[in-house]
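User: I'm designing a mutation panel for dTDP-glucose 4,6-dehydratase and want to avoid disrupting the core. Could you give me a predicted structure to guide residue selection? Please restate the sequence first so the numbering is unambiguous.

Assistant: Good idea. Sequence first, for numbering, then the predicted structure tokens:
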Amino acid sequence: MILVTGGAGFIGANFVLDWLSTCDEPVVNLDALTYAGNLENLASLKGDPRHIFVQGDICDRELVDRLFAEHQPRAIVHFAAESHVDRSIHGPGDFVRTNVNGTFTLLEAARGHWMGLDDAAKAAFRFHHVSTDEVYGSLGPTDPAFSETKTYEPNSPYSASKAASDHLVRAWHHTYGLPVTTSNCSNNYGPYHFPEKLIPLMIANALAGKPLPVYGDGQQIRDWLYVTDHCSAIRAVLAKGTPGEVYNVGGWNEKPNIEIVHTLCALLDELKPDPAGSYSRLITYVTDRPGHDRRYAIDARKIERELGWRPAETFETGIRKTVAWYLANQEWVAHILSGAYRDWVDTNYAGR
């Protein structure tokens, strides 16, 4: 049995689906079902006894303790987090509560559980913390990609809260001996991605004939990682990772945002052409967000060297699969585009 937090969100749900497609080890899935948590992501697991869903808050120590006592998980995979930079600018308090206080609560509950295990179970137990490349700050055009030893320089409330959680995880290993691992990933994309993020937002807006808002000059560079590749990397870290170690996970796909948008428009022109003309006509440049990091890039050689992991998808194969998934799952998209989501879009893009 493993315990997954945030397993109804984008990456967490993909991980749960991927896990149960590759093995029969059950999953206890703890998710608060905030705006980005969606049980429709897990609809294919309805009635599957291997998947035990629990709606709850990672800050609820009593609940977390009860889950450890009842299910005796051999590992925890911690995805649960507030993760959108723009939302962190508008409301940083939620990010501190979930990402910092929530991680602290999980660490303490895991430590209490781990200390009660016998020696063999103690040695086998793992607390895997899923983090982001944004903790490292911003790179210049010619700077080397982020390695695991890069100094932390977070520039947004989101990345600062994730950096704080990373430091807590490290400290609980070095102070208490808790067997932790951490992975810092680049930008994920793929099925079930909530449409506040670049790729699903562009697809949803294009299909609706709405403007495709591009921040600033669109030359912000990110490394793009297909979500199922991220899932396989986490499985590799759980199986073979060394306690106390950090593994950077990237897709080896550095691309500027505007190139991503043009790629999406070209794929939509091919797969669902609009009689009004190319979707690229909808591209609209808007005022950049405050403190927008210019470039992220991941050096993923350590995880390849030590654990034998490399991404299976190229950006070209992954982005085509992503667009095809969204076109085939328009009902899912329609359910996501609720009044609450529209309110958020109005808040974030008003005046830009």
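For picking mutation sites, this is relevant: The chain has 13 helices and twelve strands. The first strand starts at residue 2 and ends at 5.
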